[in-house]
Amino acid sequence: MVNSVLKVEDLKIEIKLDEGMLTPVRGVSFEVRENETLGLVGESGCGKSLTCKAILGINDKKCKTTGKINFSKDGSEINLLEMKKDSAEIRSIRGKNISMIFQEPMSSFSPLYTIGNQMSEVILLHMTKDKKKAKELAIEALRRVGIANPEKRYNQYPHEFSGGMLQRVLIAMALVCNPNLLIADEPTTALDVTIQAQIIELMKQLQKEYRMAILYITHDLGTVAQICDRVAVMYLGKIVEIGTVHEIFKDPKHPYTKGLLGSVHKIGGNNERLFSIEGTVPLAMNLKDRCSFYDRCVFRDENKCNRPEPCLKEVGKEHSVACWLYESNEPHEKEGI
Amino acid sequence: MDKWRYIAKRLVLSLFTLLMITFVVFFVIQLPPGDFVDTLVESMVAQGERVTEQEIIQLKAMYGVDRPFIVQYLDWLSGILTGDWGVSYFYNKSVISIIGETLWPTIMISLITLFITYAISIPVAIYTAKHQYQLSDYIFTFLGFVGMAVPHFLLAILLMYLSFKWFGTPLMGLFPEGGIVSWASFLEFLKRLIIPVIVISLSGTCGLIRSIRAQMLDEQERPYVLCTRARGVSEKKLTYKYQMRAVLNPIVAGLGPMIAGIFNGSTITAIVLMLPTQGPVLLKALRAQDVYLSGGILMISAILVVVGTLISDLLLAVLDPRVKYIEESK
């Protein structure tokens, strides 16, 4: 049995607005295991970013978060949600045990300080008090992510780097304290396709070296296939399907997953129109008490599906789906898109 | 060496700007119909004297106001460059000496005001930004708007009245009689400084609080703040190392205009409070069409503003690494 690094249980996030209560995350549970990459996939606005920010407790003050986020630190489990906001306790975990890299490398650094200054700040915070040692560690980390001439680069400002280079620096900074878990929030979205592939290769290679767990958030299924071991598909603040990459890509069960996969272009495929899911993600406010994908689902069965939301149910080894269509235990007839 | 090239470039640009300003200043002063002789003749006639056409022409020739504009300008400009700023018609004294009398009080009040403005607005702005939409923020916001809206002279009169009511003496003028000669007279001088500094700095301070607060709030929304927080950096360090530093740029960039505002905006206050600064002298000179005196004073304030801008440019290059980058890539 592989140990889990992070266990999220029934995570709910509520935001009180003037118009009413918004619930962008409505009970999400998953675990990330040692040395594995879990992909969290979904359209914009499905709550995936909020979920991973909740892990570090860096969501906006307006977000009311409930549930459990159990992180195993030095053999014991601690609930990160119980820690006080911005307490020294949670700050000692941020950047040290759990690191995060963000979507836009260009805006992830303060433009007013050198890369070296911002990198050694983290090292001085978590690793050593020795400034000289911190600089050495930072330069070493830069070298490891493939930055040429790291001694010179150390003293440069963010605007002197390209986007891809900055993402490398960000990864170097995230890994410099040897985290157990790396949260990557769409780390390749803002990059060119060729650079994307390089960054993903780099992350895979570094994962091997450091044996860390990665929580990889994206809406790009192409990169999921390249880097993830398991995938959780999120829709409207809930996980609708979770399984190994192989299972999900070969045999997607949830109509939403099928829709997502249908909207990816395949090399060598016929030149038909790409499939697109009708409609948009509705606002997570005043939802009807039935399957939240009901209105957009092409397979919906008026007798079966017009019921309160389904729960995740195992449909195979390491494969669960939350859909009324699979409730009867017999394979559904309508297959293939 | 890049640094020196940048400084040299700024200096040359500043000098060029000043040259342009001399022309504009002289042109604008000459714009109102008539000249000093007309004003002089008018006042002589008003006093019952008789002035003949012949005499007017003689007077005009004497003061040199009958020459074409460009000749007068070049004459004045060469004087400015060589240190001979002409003679004030009105005071019948050299312009340099009149300016000299008022320049130091003016600069001193401006600098003190500038200092007070920053010393109050920066901490208050940070505080209100950190307590956005809380009671204290609303109170400061309300006070800020009142401060911006109250006319200078009205506040000056009000404060003078209060000082008279409470201390028995209206704190007017700046220097005690006999000048600053002893400790007591220095204290008296400091006491007299209070009202002018409050009055002149008030609207600038309130305006600056608003803009720094807005920039702080803006800065809090930047993605890098979230990223830095996610690395375990404390909120205190985020505020003082990152956000404050980012907000410093617009503050420094606003230095030049700020100096101009204090310089030009305090004339009415100076008249009301009888301050020995340049504002009232300039007003008199302009009304009397005293070309050389008003030109001289305007030049001085232009020089100070240009120097202020130059300083803020140079500071900005030190503070913001991107400025150097933009300069280099040009």
Instruction: Calculate the mean pLDDT score of chain A and round it.
Output: 87
Broad shape of chain B:
globular
Residue share in helix of chain B = over 70%
CATH A-level architecture of the domain at 102-273 in chain B: Orthogonal Bundle
Q: What is the radius of gyration of chain B computed over CA atoms, rounded to a whole number of angstroms?
A: 25 Å
Overview of this protein structure:
The complex is a heterodimer of chains A (337) and B (330). In chain A, helix 3 crosses helix 4 (131-144) and helix 6 runs parallel beside helix 7 (193-210). Chain A is built from eleven helices and twelve strands. The two termini of chain A are 36 Å apart. Helices cover 29% and strands 25% of the residues of chain A. Chain A has helices at residues 48-56, 88-91, 115-126, 131-144, 150-153, 163-175, 193-210, 221-227, 245-250, 255-262, 302-305, and strands at 4-17, 20-33, 37-41, 63-73, 76-79, 98-101, 181-185, 213-218, 230-235, 238-244, 313-316, 319-321. An eight-stranded mixed sheet of chain A has the order 6-7-8-3-9-10-12-11, sandwiched between helices. A four-stranded antiparallel sheet of chain A has the order 2-1-4-5, covered by helices on one side. Chain B has a domain at 102-273: MetI-like fold (Orthogonal Bundle). Chain B contains 15 helices and no strands. Chain B is globular, with a radius of gyration of 25 Å.
What order do the helices and strands come in, and which of them pair?
The complex is a heterodimer of chains A (337) and B (330).
Chain A: E1 4-17, E2 20-33, E3 37-41, H1 48-56, E4 63-73, E5 76-79, H2 88-91, E6 98-101, H3 115-126, H4 131-144, H5 150-153, H6 163-175, E7 181-185, H7 193-210, E8 213-218, H8 221-227, E9 230-235, E10 238-244, H9 245-250, H10 255-262, H11 302-305, E11 313-316, E12 319-321
Parallel strand pairs in A: 3-8, 3-9, 6-7, 7-8
Antiparallel strand pairs in A: 1-2, 1-4, 4-5, 9-10, 10-12, 11-12
Chain B: H1 2-30, H2 36-46, H3 53-63, H4 69-82, H5 95-130, H6 135-149, H7 152-167, H8 183-220, H9 223-230, H10 235-253, H11 255-265, H12 267-273, H13 278-287, H14 291-319, H15 321-329
Helix pairs in contact in B: 1-14, 5-6, 5-8, 5-11, 5-14, 6-8, 7-8, 7-12, 8-10, 10-14, 11-14, 12-13, 13-14, 14-15
